[in-house]
Each structure stands twice: as structure tokens, then as C-alpha cells.
RNA sequence: GCCCGGGUGGCGGAACUGGUAGACGCGCUGGAUUCAAAAUCCAGUUCUUUCGGGAGUGCGGGUUCGAUUCCCGCCCCGGGUACCA
């Protein structure tokens, strides 16, 4: 080994050489390759795979990856066979937008970006098994996305067995029994017998089957985003605008593929109970699914024999409080039942309501509107006539699009009744409803015939019983969850393995998958508004030859047009965790033996923003695949941690801006702007109290001097706050003025008003990291400067993983120093390896085992920040003890491996172990004996305030402790001669004296 | 509005089931070393104080020998959701 022991050349911790060396070693030796192994328990650790964007990674991205890597490495030391893969969610909008602008194929952009990501990831020392990488845009991957789509298409949901079943079974039932006996989730509006079924033509039969399929084609109201030229799923629309880009979204009726996720609503809800996820995410999913239990009730329309209005209510106990009915303006019956007298008003109202966008309706909640139709329903229990109104607070898309309005118990109904002077019936005993509705689910029902005197809960049950007995209604459960739109009018997504034979959707046989994306000459919609795939020439299916063919052959009877939509972004990500288990399998989406070994993900780390999207869809697909027996678990992600966002720390400079007033100056004389830059404290002063006279006069004088002119004065003097690139900031917010002037030449003539030390101090603020705020910190820069091990530990040290926290580079030195200090434990002052063999000293053993326990506990609780502190404490203690004992240091190195794998490998080798084997070392065994102490320094409190410490044997009895403590001189001092009222002794913990 | 989180020094944050509030790190102050600087090491660092103490975990109350931790009411910040009948 090289000796660099001259006084000024101490061999220090050379992280660059070390990290480079081990990265190479790991890659060359396939250190992190994983194979199935039945002798070891499995551990599957996964992080949400990224969309490879052009901007690359900033320090916020690797946070979750690092935590996940630490845990995976920890499990490995604990003897688990670890699957820790990584891949790319590589279909997506940005690559396509870029293609539209530049004509470059999204596949090329994607490939470049993936390479950049990989380069950045490789620098951080992850233990990913890259042999298992998946990319959703790779045909060998999306072949199976298409295959799963087909499986879903070929399924319906059976309510009796509560699972997905093959559609072939359904066909058989239709042929023998029609659809009257089957209990399946469907949209079918007709009932038919077996005879009728057989009499239907193929088209009609297919249309009916569509109403049962778990993925189906239907005209549905969709969120159409004109700016993006595509439809969006509900979870992709936030506050009426698109989640990506914030473009307006409108409702449009379109023929689209949808996924019947609603069939799984109850299972998706129930399954949450057993998941180890945060309550926040579970609540979001619960709210999104939105289960409500109640009853459906039929109200006959007065004067119509066959027409009735069905409503859903969660409060059937208040049925005698119905004061009016409200239909959604779009409700089917509105036109039919409206009396001539109200025709024009109703038409008018429908028109204005229809013009309001979803967004207007949302933002205009307080403004109650509605219109009477002139019609009435008959109360099914007491025969009273009840007026029918229409109002836009009733949504056509929820429940039946009609409500029974009970103003005494529902605030919206109450508001409506007040606005239109509709008399309110009160069914609550002893409750005043003159100021508002009584919305509590407690109390006693009155004015309600057979429900009188009953408590709410009992009344609900009895009301449902009675409604069912009389055949007027039945118990019912509703969900807010809607079916998920599954088509996008986009190019860069999975093509559907679907073609249309005379309008009937047919799927392409498995052996012809994948159906690869066709080449197009432009990525925009066609001139007649078809999706981009409409531009492809080879996009027809030749049924006879089972291949794609050109549109020139379209007139042949066996050639049919292909589906022009592509699948949404969540298609590929709904099952990717399964593909990692068996990424090269060409026969199946995953081999049965592989998935039976790896099962579901033990720990999933990713952002909370996917709560209603990816995390719900992936659960849905997993349940579906389980129903078909492909896998034997129903939840994909058993435990999940949501990492918080790392925010940027932006820096600011503050400069003057003013309008110059001058007369008598030759107009051709060039006038140059001149600015004063004020430091943070001055700027804050100015922003509060405005400029002082001196300040503005100084500015005028400087402008005059600089331009060699005489001014009449200045106006509009103000301070402008500007983002400054954080790379131009030295420690303590000091600006590198010279570099700033180079970066912003327009300010090169400015005067920087510095403090007494000659420094210009910048202001700062915590905001999201973004290019435009010049506050982006890339991991690459930090790895370059401090090394990957330091970056890994610092990201963990920042705070709890789930919490959002500001990024601040200042503290990174502390972590880096810790690693250097660790290095010095192994070396003497001249940088030579210096270890001692033999029995370790008791204090060192205590320091080590305290740390083993702490790390163990923290890992078990998924707490990473305090583990880093524990390492620091350990190294500090060993340094104080001047401990260089080999046995101690060896265990410490293993302990540290998950956090700082490079330095751990290096020191591990120096300790005499085989190169590259520390990842497979054994996690140190904690031995309590080393922590046992003979004495304990009892904190002695008086009335709960800690006053002094008393060093006493740990095995001393309560009584003796009390006696000893009270006898102490200091205790006497606090007792002031009085006898203590009470003394509490908790052995090994505390003594509290009550005076 | 409703549903979840969260409020602790100058800063990031510790404190497991009620038991020494402020671990660890940053920053700051002083000192050692150095021709000097960097690096390193040592000491100090919640506030306040008449140096005896006193106050203190968003605010007000409560339970307890003892509360950052439990209960009640309120304020503020972050996230989710929004006429869901």
C-alpha cells in the first residue's frame, strides 16, 4: 500500500478512489444479482419506478431510493434473499410533446433520458439488480400489458363468487337461462331469456356482453382536455384542470374503453384494513371509493301509472320528512313529467345549468338554483303529494340522479327549501330547525307514523324493513368510485390488441402479441380529429393472414381497422412489480414458480400523490389476476412508506429599480442603468419602511456619476427581488459578487452594498425545486464533492423520511466529517492502517452494542435519521476511547454497510476480509450483557423538577433508594426542613419527591 | 365546510409504551495548533437573571407525584376532498 506519511501529505479518506473502485467491482462481479433460493426467506423491496424525464434527477428523487436501498441491504445482512429491482415507467406525455415539437421519435428521447438516469443512479451505489430492469415502453414488456388487457376483456364479475370469471361462462348461462338469474356486475338495461338471447344477432350479443365485460367500450361522459388532445381519468383531473399542465377539462360524450373497477369497490375498500400503509393514504382511498349505505326508494309519479323516480338515501328513517323531490337537470324523466305550465321555465333552467362547466358548479356552491316542474310524486307510505323540482345540486352521475329532499335533516335540502319557500316538515323530536338542518345521526324520530319514538339507528332498520316488505324500496350500498376510462388519444402508449370487424371489437390472438406501435409521420391527431395512430399506414388487421397490413388493403373483407386509441399511463405501472420477478419470460407475464416464491412487495416506497391513481389501479389488477389464479395474493404492496418532498432553498438578491427623470440631456447620449444591490437585512428594512432619504440620494448621485449627467430626480423607486443561482452562494448566504456579475452581465456595473465584513448577504426561501428558481441541487454535484456515501447518509440524516423538508447543503459537512472520523479510527496520524487485535475493552463493547441495538430498533421502525446519529455517537465514543480494536471495528463496518456501502467495502477489505463480500456479511448480534451497569444516576426531582442526580446501585430496593436520596445533603436543601409528602421511586428510572 | 397530518433552540431535527426536554448535526462564540490559512482538537451555546434562581415543547384549561407525550376547547401551517343525497 502506498505510504504517504510525510507531514503535509496525510493519507486521508479518498472517497473518489474508493467509490469508483467498488462501483466497478460490483458491476464486474454481479454482486447484486438475485436468484430464487428456497433455503432463504424472501424479501421484496420496491421503489416506485420513475418516468425518465429530460431534466434528470435532483436530490429529492433519490430519497426514497436510498431508504429502500438501505432497507434492502439491511435485509440481506439479516439473511434474506432480497429482490430489489429498478426500471422505468417510460411511456408518457413529455416525450410525446417533445416529438410533436421536434419530430424526434419518443423512443429515442426516452432512450437518451433512460441512459442519463442510469448514469446518475449508478453513482449513488444502489444494490439494484439491473439484470431485472423493465421499461413499460419496451415491446417485450407491453406484450404482457396487452395480454392482461385481453384477460380483463374476457372476464365479467360474478357477485356470487365475488370474483372475476371468464366471459365464456357467462355466455353459457345466457344460452341456458338468459340474464335474469345471473348475479353479475353490469350496465345491461334489458332482461332477456335464453330464447331471446339465441335470437339476437352477433352484433347485439356482443353489445350485451360489453355491458358485462370488466373492460368495455361505451359512450361515456369523459374528461376531455382539448389542450392535451386526450381524455383523462378522474384522478388526472384536479380542480377542473389537468393534473399535468393545468389545462382546462370539459365533459364530452365519447366512445371509450373503460375498466370496471367499480366491481372491485368493496374489495378495494375492505383490503385496506390489512395493509400497513399510512392512515392518510388509506383515508384518501376510502374517500375516493366513497361507500355509503342506505336504501333505494321508489316514488310513483302522480298521474303516471308506470313512471316512478328511484332515489338513493342514507337516511331512510327520515322518509316522512320528505318535503320535495329534486332531479338532476339531465334526468331522463324531466321532459316527460314537466307540465305544460312549466315547460319553458324548465327548458330555460336546463339550458343555463348545462352551460355551467363542472368547475363553475363546484365554485358556485353557495348559490342555490332550481326550478319546479309542475309534477308531483306520491309518498309511498302516506300517499301525500310531493312536488318535483330540478336543481343542479343533484348530480346526474351519482346514485340515481334524483334525491328525496329532507330539509330538516340535510343542509343542502334546507337551503333549497328556504330559497324557494317550500314548507319544511320536521321529523326530529325536540330539535329546532329554524336556523339550519339537524344533520347529526342521533336523536329520536317523530311525526313519522310507525317510526315515532325510535332512535335514528333503529328507525333506519325498521324503515328499510317496511320498504322492503311493501316492495317500495330496498337496502342498498352506493359507491362514489367511477369506472376508469382506459383510452388515450395519444401516440406514446400501449396499442390495444383490438380491431373492429363491422363495428364489433375483436381481440388479436395471443400468439400475435405484442402488437407494436406503428410508425407515424407526425404525432398529432389526424385532420379529421382521429388519434395520432390514425396517421399510421400499416394499421389494419388482416384476419386471414393474422398480421398488420396497409390501409391500401382496407377494402378487402378480411381486413379491419385497428383501434386508434392507446392505453393510459397507468396500464404498464399496474403490474410492473410482477414483471421484475421474471423479466425475460417469453411464455408468461410472470412464471408461476417465481411469483409463488417472491409473492407481493414487502416494502414499497414512493410518493403519496399516487393515492387515487397508480396505487388503486395496481390493487385492482392484482385482485383481478388473483381471481384467475395467476397469483395467490390479492394485495400488491403490503407495507408502504411515502417519502416526503425535498424542497429547495432558493436564494435572492434585492436591487433597486426606478424611472429616471432628466431634462436637458442630449437624447443621443447613451444612458446606462445603474443599480444598488442591498443585502438581506437592509432589504427587509426597506421593504418595511421604504428607502431612507440617504439611500435614494446615494442612488441618484451614483447614477449621475456613472452616466455623467445631471438628473432632475427619480420616481417609482422600488426594490426588486431576484432569484439567484444557488451555485453562486458561498456558505452563510454570502454572494460571490464577481461570479454573479458574470452570470448576469446586465448588473456588472451595479454597486453591491456589503456589510462591515465586505460581504453581500442573500435572502432565502424554501420552495419547490425547479430550474426557473435556480435552486436545483443535483446528486451528481454532491457525489463529486463529498461522495455517494456522504450523500446517502445526509439524505437520511435530514429528518424523518415521510416528512417534507427543505434541502440545505450546509449540514452535509457534518456527515462527511463523520465518515472521515470513521476512517481515522482505522489509521494512525500518518495514514497507515493501525488496528489492534485481542479482546476489546468493555467500554468499546458497550458503545458498539448500544449502536447495534439502536440501529436494529430503528430499522425495525423504518426510522433512518436517528440511525445516522447513532453511528455518529458510536464513532465519537470510539474516538474518545482511542479504540482501534479489530473485532469492534469489524462489527461496526457491517452495521454501516447499508448506509455507506463503499467505505464499508473498503474498510472490510482492510480488516482482512475477501473483497466485495461485506453485503453478505452477517448482521451483528446484539448482546445485552455489555450494556448492564452496576449503578444508575437517578435524576431526583422535587415536584416534577429535576434537581440533581444520585448515583446508586441498580439493584437497590425502592425503599433503600428513597432512604439514600432523602439523606443526601442536596435533598435536605430542597426539602427546607419539611417532611416530604410523598416519594415516588421508579427503579432504574427516576425519583420524584413531593413536598 | 369535512377528513387526515403537523406546530419543540438561530436552523434540520431527537425524546420507544407519561419519567433527566433540546440527542446528533449545522451555525455561532471562545481557546489550542499554525508564519498564516484550511483541516483538526478542546470548551460553550433554549431563553432570562440581581447568578440564588425563574420560565420554557402553538394558546387556554384539565387528569397525574410527574405531560412534548393522555383528555377538553381554541389558533396557525401542510395534505386530501368537495353539492356524493
Describe this protein's structure.
This protein is an alpha+beta fold and 995 residues long. It folds into 6 domains: 37-132 and 571-642, HUPs (Rossmann fold, 3-Layer(aba) Sandwich); 149-269 and 279-284 and 484-536, no CATH class; 292-478, Alpha-Beta Complex (Isoleucyl-tRNA Synthetase, domain 2); 646-767, no CATH class; 779-927, Isoleucyl-tRNA Synthetase, Domain 1; 933-994, Roll (Ubiquitin-like (UB roll)). Helices cover 33% and strands 19% of the residues. The chain has 31 helices and 34 strands. Strands 10, 11, 12, 13, 14, 15 and 16 form a 7-stranded mixed beta sheet that branches. Strands 25, 26, 27, 28, 29 and 30 form a 6-stranded mixed beta sheet that branches. The protein starts with 14 loop residues before the first helix and ends with a strand. 39% of the residues are buried. The protein binds one RNA strand of 85 nucleotides through helix 10, strand 11, strand 15, helix 14 and strand 30.
Layout of strands and helices, then pairs:
Layout: H1 15-29, E1 42-47, H2 62-77, E2 81-83, H3 93-102, H4 106-122, H5 139-153, E3 155-158, E4 163-166, H6 167-177, H7 194-199, H8 202-210, E5 215-225, E6 230-232, E7 237-238, E8 241-242, E9 250-259, H9 265-271, H10 279-289, E10 292-301, E11 308-313, E12 324-327, H11 334-337, H12 343-355, H13 358-363, E13 371-378, E14 385-390, E15 402-405, H14 411-419, H15 456-469, E16 473-478, E17 484-485, E18 498-501, E19 504-507, E20 540-542, E21 547-549, E22 559-561, H16 570-573, H17 576-579, H18 592-598, E23 601-606, H19 614-627, E24 637-642, E25 646-661, E26 676-678, H20 680-689, H21 693-707, E27 713-724, H22 737-743, E28 751-753, E29 763-767, H23 779-786, H24 788-797, E30 805-806, H25 812-826, H26 842-860, H27 865-880, H28 886-896, H29 901-910, E31 935-942, E32 945-953, H30 958-967, H31 969-975, E33 982-986, E34 990-994
Parallel strand pairs: 1-2, 1-23, 12-14, 23-24, 25-30, 26-28, 31-34
Antiparallel strand pairs: 3-4, 5-6, 5-9, 7-8, 9-17, 10-11, 10-13, 10-16, 12-15, 13-14, 18-19, 20-21, 20-22, 25-26, 25-27, 25-29, 31-32, 33-34
The chain binds one RNA strand of 85 nucleotides through α10, β11, β15, α14 and β30.
Amino acid at each position: 500500500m502506498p505510504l504517504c506519511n510525510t507531514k503535509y501529505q496525510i493519507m486521508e479518506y479518498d472517497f473518489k478512489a474508493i467509490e469508483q473502485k467498488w462501483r466497478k467491482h460490483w458491476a464486474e462481479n454481479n454482486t447484486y444479482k438475485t436468484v430464487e433460493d428456497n433455503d432463504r426467506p424472501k424479501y421484496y423491496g420496491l421503489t416506485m419506478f420513475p418516468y425518465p424525464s429530460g431534466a434528470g434527477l435532483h436530490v429529492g428523487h433519490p430519497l426514497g431510493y436510498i431508504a429502500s436501498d438501505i432497507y434492502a441491504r439491511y435485509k440481506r445482512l439479516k439473511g434474506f434473499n432480497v429482490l430489489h429491482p429498478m426500471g422505468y415507467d417510460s411511456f408518457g406525455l413529455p416525450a410525446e410533446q417533445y416529438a410533436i415539437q421536434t419530430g424526434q421519435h419518443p423512443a429515442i428521447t426516452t432512450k437518451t433520458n433512460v441512459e442519463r438516469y442510469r448514469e446518475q443512479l449508478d453513482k449513488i451505489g444502489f444494490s439494484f439488480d439491473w439484470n431485472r430492469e423493465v421499461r413499460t415502453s419496451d415491446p417485450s414488456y407491453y406484450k404482457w400489458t396487452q395480454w392482461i388487457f385481453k384477460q380483463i376483456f374476457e372476464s365479467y364479475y360474478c357477485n356470487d363468487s365475488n370474483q372475476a370469471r371468464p366471459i365464456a361462462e357467462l355466455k353459457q348461462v345466457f344460452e341456458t337461462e338468459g340474464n335474469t338469474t345471473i348475479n353479475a356486475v353490469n350496465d345491461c338495461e334489458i332482461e332477456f331469456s335464453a330464447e331471446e338471447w339465441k335470437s339476437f344477432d352477433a352484433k347485439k350479443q356482443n353489445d350485451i356482453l360489453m355491458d358485462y365485460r370488466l373492460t368495455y367500450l361505451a359512450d361515456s361522459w369523459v374528461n376531455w382536455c382539448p389542450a392535451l388532445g386526450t381524455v383523462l381519468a378522474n384522478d388526472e383531473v384536479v380542480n377542473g384542470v389537468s393534473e399535468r399542465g393545468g389545462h382546462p377539462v370539459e365533459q364530452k360524450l365519447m366512445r371509450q374503453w373503460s375498466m370496471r373497477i367499480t366491481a372491485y369497490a368493496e374489495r378495494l375498500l375492505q383490503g385496506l384494513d390489512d395493509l400497513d400503509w399510512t392512515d392518510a393514504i388509506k383515508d384518501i382511498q376510502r374517500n375516493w371509493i366513497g361507500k355509503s349505505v342506505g336504501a333505494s326508494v321508489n316514488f310513483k309519479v302522480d298521474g303516471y301509472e308506470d313512471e316512478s323516480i328511484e332515489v338513493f338515501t342514507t337516511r331512510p328513517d327520515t322518509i316522512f320528512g320528505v318535503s320535495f323531490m329534486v332531479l338532476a337537470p339531465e334526468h331522463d324523466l324531466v321532459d316527460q313529467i314537466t307540465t305544460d305550465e312549466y315547460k319553458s321555465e324548465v327548458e330555460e333552467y336546463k339550458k343555463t345549468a348545462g352551460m355551467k362547466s363542472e368547475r363553475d358548479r363546484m365554485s358556485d356552491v353557495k348559490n342555490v338554483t332550481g326550478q319546479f316542474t309542475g309534477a308531483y310524486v306520491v309518498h309511498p307510505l302516506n300517499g301525500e303529494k310531493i312536488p318535483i323540482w330540478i336543481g343542479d345540486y343533484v348530480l346526474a352521475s351519482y346514485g340515481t340522479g334524483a334525491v328525496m329532499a329532507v330539509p330538516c335533516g340535510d343542509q343542502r335540502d334546507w337551503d333549497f327549501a328556504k330559497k324557494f319557500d317550500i314548507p319544511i316538515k320536521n321529523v326530529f323530536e325536540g330539535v329546532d330547525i329554524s336556523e339550519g338542518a339537524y344533520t347529526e345521526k342521533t336523536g329520536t324520530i317523530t311525526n313519522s307514523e310507525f317510526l315515532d319514538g325510535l332512535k335514528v339507528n333503529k328507525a333506519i332498520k325498521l324503515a328499510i324493513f317496511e320498504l322492503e316488505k311493501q316492495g317500495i324500496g330496498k337496502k342498498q350500498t352506493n359507491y362514489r368510485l367511477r369506472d376508469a376510462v382506459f383510452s388515450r388519444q395519444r401516440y406514446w402508449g400501449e396499442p390495444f390488441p383490438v380491431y373492429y370487424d363491422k363495428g364489433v371489437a375483436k381481440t388479436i390472438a395471443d400468439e400475435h402479441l405484442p402488437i407494436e406501435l406503428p410508425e407515424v409521420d407526425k404525432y398529432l391527431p389526424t385532420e379529421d380529429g382521429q388519434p395520432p395512430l390514425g396517421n399510421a399506414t400499416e394499421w389494419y388487421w388482416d384476419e386471414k393472414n393474422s398480421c398488420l397490413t396497409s390501409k391500401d388493403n382496407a377494402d378487402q373483407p378480411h381486413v379491419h381497422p385497428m383501434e386508434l386509441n392507446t392505453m393510459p399511463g397507468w396500464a404498464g405501472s399496474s403490474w410492473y412489480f410482477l414483471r421484475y420477478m421474471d423479466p425475460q419470460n417469453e411464455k408468461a407475464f410472470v412464471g408461476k414458480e417465481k411469483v409463488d416464491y417472491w409473492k407481493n412487495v414487502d416494502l414499497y416506497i414512493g410518493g403519496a400523490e399516487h393515492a387515487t391513481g397508480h396505487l388503486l389501479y395496481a390493487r385492482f389488477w392484482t385482485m383481478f389476476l388473483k381471481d384467475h389464479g395467476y397469483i395467490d395474493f390479492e394485495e400488491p404492496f403490503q407495507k408502504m412508506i411515502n417519502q416526503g418532498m425535498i424542497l429547495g432553498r432558493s436564494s435572492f438578491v434585492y436591487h433597486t429599480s426606478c424611472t429616471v427623470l432628466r431634462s436637458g440631456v442630449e437624447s443621443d447620449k447613451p444612458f446606462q442603468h445603474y443599480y444598488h444591490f442591498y443585502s438581506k437585512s437592509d432589504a427587509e428594512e426597506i421593504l418595511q419602511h421604504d428607502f431612507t432619504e440617504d439611500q435614494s440620494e446615494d442612488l441618484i448621485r451614483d447614477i449621475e456619476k456613472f452616466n455623467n449627467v445631471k438628473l432632475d430626480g427619480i420616481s417609482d423607486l422600488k426594490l426588486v427581488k431576484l432569484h439567484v443561482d444557488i451555485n453562486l452562494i458561498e456558505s452563510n448566504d454570502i454572494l460571490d459578487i464577481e461570479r454573479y456579475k458574470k452570470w448576469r452581465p446586465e448588473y456588472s456595473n451595479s454597486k453591491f452594498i456589503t456589510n462591515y465584513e465586505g460581504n453581500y448577504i442573500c435572502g432565502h426561501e424554501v420552495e419547490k425545486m425547479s430550474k426557473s428558481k435556480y435552486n436545483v441541487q443535483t446528486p451528481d454535484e454532491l457525489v463529486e464533492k463529498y461522495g455517494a456515501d456522504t450523500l446517502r447518509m445526509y439524505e437520511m440524516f435530514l429528518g424523518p423520511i415521510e416528512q417534507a423538508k427543505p434541502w440545505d447543503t450546509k449540514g452535509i459537512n457534518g456527515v462527511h466529517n463523520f465518515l472521515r472520523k470513521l476512517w481515522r479510527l482505522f489509521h494512525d496520524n500518518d495514514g497507515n492502517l493501525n488496528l489492534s487485535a485481542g479482546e476489546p475493552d468493555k467500554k468499546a463493547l458497550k458503545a458498539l452494542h448500544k449502536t447495534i441495538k439502536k440501529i436494529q430498533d430503528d430499522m425495525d421502525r423504518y426510522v433512518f435519521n436517528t440511525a445516522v446519529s447513532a453511528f455518529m455517537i458510536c464513532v465519537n465514543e470510539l474516538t474518545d476511547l482511542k479504540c482501534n480494536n479489530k473485532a469492534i471495528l469489524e462489527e461496526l463496518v457491517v452495521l454501516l454497510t447499508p448506509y455507506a456501502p463503499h467505505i464499508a467495502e473498503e474498510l472490510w477489505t482492510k480488516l482482512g476480509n475477501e473483497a466485495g463480500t461485506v453485503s453478505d456479511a452477517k448482521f451483528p448480534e446484539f448482546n445485552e450483557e455489555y450494556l448492564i451497569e452496576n449503578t444508575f444516576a437517578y435524576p431526583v426531582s422535587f415536584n416534577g423538577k429535576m434537581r440533581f442526580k444520585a448515583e446508586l446501585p441498580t439493584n437497590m430496593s425502592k425503599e433503600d433508594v428513597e432512604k439514600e436520596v432523602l439523606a443526601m445533603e442536596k435533598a435536605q436543601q430542597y426539602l427546607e426542613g419539611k417532611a416530604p409528602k410523598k416519594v415516588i421511586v421508579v427503579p432504574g428510572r427516576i425519583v420524584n419527591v413531593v413536598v
